[in-house]
Amino acid sequence: MIKVLFVCLGNICRSPLAEAIFDHKIKSIGIEDHFKSDSAGTSDYHIGELPDERTINCAKKYNIPINHRGRQVNRTDFRDFDYILAMDENNLKNLNAIKDRYGFEGKEIHLIRNFVPSGAGLSVPDPYYGGEDGFEEIYHILNEAVDHFLSKIQERHQLYA
């Protein structure tokens, strides 16, 4: 089982949408039995909350089921997940600090957009303080990033429907 964790700040906008897009894609190509996915936030701002209403609306617009409650990343995530994908540089910095504190030296943490050839080093913008258009923008960014990530993972693990 390949385990993937998507991480943003509060776990109510970007990371639950990335998780939902990923789950939708693996199910649509029939490889969902090979994966477990989840999402988390580096902060404790929204523990137990549903995703932001704008996240839910955006997912619905694209017929993507989203079912998540906010949670904070914890040290067991570094043991349990094979791939940890951060939405931005601050998330990456926070994850690396946790990783170093608990001695998970070999654990790879990636910016999700690094899987997109034209997106290397770029962050997924946080739409929280903006309007609906910001959620639309991150949907397209995440949809492309998840496609590239999934392609790389399918190749690496030889998973094809």
From TrEMBL:
Keywords: Cytoplasm, Hydrolase, Protein phosphatase. One of its GO terms (cellular component) is cytoplasm. Residues 2-152 form the Phosphotyrosine protein phosphatase I domain. It is found in: Cytoplasm. The keyword Cytoplasm applies. The active site is at 8 (nucleophile), 14, 126 (proton donor). One of its GO terms (molecular function) is acid phosphatase activity. Its EC number is 3.1.3.48. Belongs to the low molecular weight phosphotyrosine protein phosphatase family. This is protein-tyrosine-phosphatase.
